[in-house]
């Protein structure tokens, strides 16, 4: 394998020595931007992606970890979106089987009339998936439902409806998309912020001005097409293009809490399709924990590190306690996090439009200067969104029309020669071999990061993996490692804080950093992690 496959220094060297104009520059390294970069590079276009922070730092690492058609979108009458998402769900399972899996979901039924309503909807949902079906839905008796969910309150319970959807690790998939893009000739840089747009005659965009946030060095980078894929921050780039730009984004904050498996022992997930105020509540097993969420709350301003609101946490706890036998408290929360959804405001809508009533469909826009902006959408449909965006770029840039190949393109990590069922290694796919090789060469790297007697396998992680993440996954900070390459910050904020010094030491050696860097990284990470931890003290 090429040393430093996903290597920032190598990409910087390419950028500094590149004389020709890029075909396409993508701003934004979340699911949408990475998908666009992969579609572009795999068609043979000269592709550069710039991300102001780490890949998937924002919304794309903070999802409910579901690859799904969206059963609630049927209630909105958005059949086209559901059909498209179900198709894309099938492509994702085929192309990234090391990260995507089929997951059983159950809707508990408390009245026969609602049971019939959901049964009809799920059968239609199943029918829409066609040959991409993940499995047949069926009715569960009251006893079957109780056996599946022994912690559930049984008062008024009539039974349940079992159906199938998908689950994945969002941030790990983002890294694999970045690796896939590089494998196809693309160049990506994280911690590289676009600060302005370059325009030529007739006010047409011809590139970007960007700043390397690690060195503060500025670059003028020229391209034939610039694509704005910055999600909730799309308006920031659009205002660089047109100072009088009218905001189209309504950021919606979704919050999740993570609990120990003892609160939810089932391997099946539960969906409460209509809570006290009409929002959906998910309880989803994830890495030997349970992920509970999400709520929709309108925010006035988009931020890179959104904080869970107290009322959101209270809402989740109250609704969880309504359906389960526990008296869940904030002190039971292992970690809590929020993510912002870039919802596109419909025409003639008011600022008070309820977020749950806004469609998750994406919107593709072209400004007078030629800036392409893609906003809205969701993780499951990232590939389709990318294909449409590059098709539009081909039209505007008058490129040779090369068809997209991503429907059948295996995502990096998926071509392992055997199926590894060990959750510790499966997420690495074919890279497992290379990480084990590091341990063979230096047995000290086989030492675990966490000394624990727990049977929770998600905590069995080695020093070798940190070294690998720095050398081959472009991890630049403790947060990059513990939040997104590992998922410790999202699973157990306290444990993440405990192992931060070990990670800092390993990273400092790899990045040739001094003790001052180690100390500042540990301090910054602890400050960040305290926002995920309840109660707010160690």
Present the secondary structure layout.
Layout (H helix, E strand, L loop, with lengths): L7 H9 L5 E6 L3 H12 L4 E4 L15 E2 L3 H5 L3 H17 L5 E9 L2 H18 L8 E4 H7 L10 E9 L2 H14 L3 E3 L2 E8 L5 E8 L4 E12 L5 H8 L7 E12 L8 E4 L8 E6 L2 E5 L3 E2 L11 H14 L11 E10 L17 E5 L5 E5 L5 H16 L25 H4 L4 H11 L21 H10 L5 H8 L2 H4 L1 H19 L3 H15 L9
Parallel strand pairs: 1-2, 1-10, 2-7, 4-12, 10-18
Antiparallel strand pairs: 3-6, 4-6, 5-6, 8-9, 9-10, 11-14, 11-15, 11-16, 12-13, 13-14, 17-18
Notes on the structure:
Helix 2 (31-42) packs parallel to helix 7 and helix 13 crosses helix 16 (493-511). The protein folds into 3 domains: 28-59 and 171-244 and 356-408, FAD/NAD(P)-binding domain (3-Layer(bba) Sandwich), CATH 3.50.50.60; 100-167 and 250-349, D-Amino Acid Oxidase, subunit A, domain 2 (D-Amino Acid Oxidase, Chain A, domain 2), CATH 3.30.9.10; 430-529. It has 17 helices and 18 strands. It has 538 residues and is an alpha+beta fold.
pLDDT averaged residue by residue: 90
CATH C-level class of the largest domain is Alpha Beta
Radius of gyration from the alpha-carbon trace, in angstroms: 23 Å
CATH superfamily of the largest domain: D-Amino Acid Oxidase, subunit A, domain 2
Treating each run of at least 4 consecutive H or I residues as one helix, how many helices?
17
CATH topology of the largest domain: D-Amino Acid Oxidase, Chain A, domain 2
CATH architecture descriptor name of the largest domain: 2-Layer Sandwich
């Amino acid at each position: 394998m090429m040393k430093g496959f996903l290597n920032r220094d190598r990409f910087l060297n390419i950028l500094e020595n590149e004389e020709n104009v890029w075909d396409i520059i993508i701003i934004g390294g979340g699911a949408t931007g990475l998908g666009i970069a992969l579609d572009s590079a795999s068609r043979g276009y000269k592709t550069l992606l710039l991300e102001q922070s780490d890949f998937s730092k924002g919304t794309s690492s903070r999802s409910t970890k579901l690859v799904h058609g969206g059963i609630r979108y049927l209630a909105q009458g958005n059949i086209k979106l559901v059909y498209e998402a179900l198709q894309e769900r099938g492509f994702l399972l085929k192309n990234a089987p090391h990260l995507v899996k089929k997951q059983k979901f159950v809707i508990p039924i408390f009245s026969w009339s609602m049971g019939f309503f959901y049964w009809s909807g799920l059968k239609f949902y199943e029918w829409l998936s066609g040959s991409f079906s993940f499995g047949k839905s069926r009715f569960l008796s009251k006893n079957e439902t109780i056996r599946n969910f022994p912690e559930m309150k049984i008062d008024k319970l009539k039974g349940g409806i079992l159906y199938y959807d998908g689950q994945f690790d969002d941030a790990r998939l983002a890294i694999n998309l970045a690796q896939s893009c590089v494998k196809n000739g693309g160049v990506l840089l994280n911690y590289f912020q676009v600060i302005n747009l370059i325009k030529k005659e007739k006010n047409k965009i011809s590139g970007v001005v960007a700043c390397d946030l690690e060195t503060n060095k500025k670059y003028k980078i020229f391209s034939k097409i610039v694509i704005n894929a910055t999600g909730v921050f799309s308006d920031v780039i659009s205002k660089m293009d047109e100072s009088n730009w009218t905001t189209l984004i309504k950021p919606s904050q979704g919050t999740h809490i993570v609990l120990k498996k003892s609160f939810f022992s089932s391997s099946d997930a539960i969906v409460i399709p209509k809570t006290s105020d009409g929002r959906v509540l998910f309880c989803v097993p994830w890495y030997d924990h349970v992920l509970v969420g999400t709520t929709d709350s309108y925010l006035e301003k988009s931020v890179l590190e959104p904080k869970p609101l107290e009322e959101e946490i209270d809402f989740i706890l109250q609704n969880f306690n309504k359906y389960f036998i526990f008296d869940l408290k904030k002190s039971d929360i292992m970690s809590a996090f929020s993510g912002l959804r870039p919802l596109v405001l419909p025409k003639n809508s008011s600022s008070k439009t309820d977020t749950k009533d806004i469609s998750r469909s994406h919107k593709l826009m072209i400004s007078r200067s030629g800036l392409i902006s893609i906003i809205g959408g969701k993780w499951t449909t990232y590939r389709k969104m990318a294909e449409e965006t590059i098709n539009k770029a081909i039209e505007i840039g008058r490129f040779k029309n090369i068809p997209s190949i991503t429907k059948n393109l295996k995502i990096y990590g998926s071509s392992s020669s055997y199926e590894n069922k060990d959750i510790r290694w499966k997420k690495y796919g074919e890279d497992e071999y290379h990480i084990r090789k590091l341990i063979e060469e230096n047995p000290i790297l086989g030492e675990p990061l966490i000394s624990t007697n727990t049977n929770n396998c998600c905590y069995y992680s080695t020093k070798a993996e940190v070294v690998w993440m720095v050398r081959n996954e472009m991890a630049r900070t403790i947060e990059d490692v513990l939040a997104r390459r590992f998922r410790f910050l999202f699973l157990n904020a306290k444990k993440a804080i405990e192992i931060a010094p070990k990670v800092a030491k390993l990273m400092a050696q790899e990045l040739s950093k001094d003790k001052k860097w180690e100390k500042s990284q540990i301090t910054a990470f602890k400050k960040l992690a305290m926002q995920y931890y309840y109660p707010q003290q160690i």
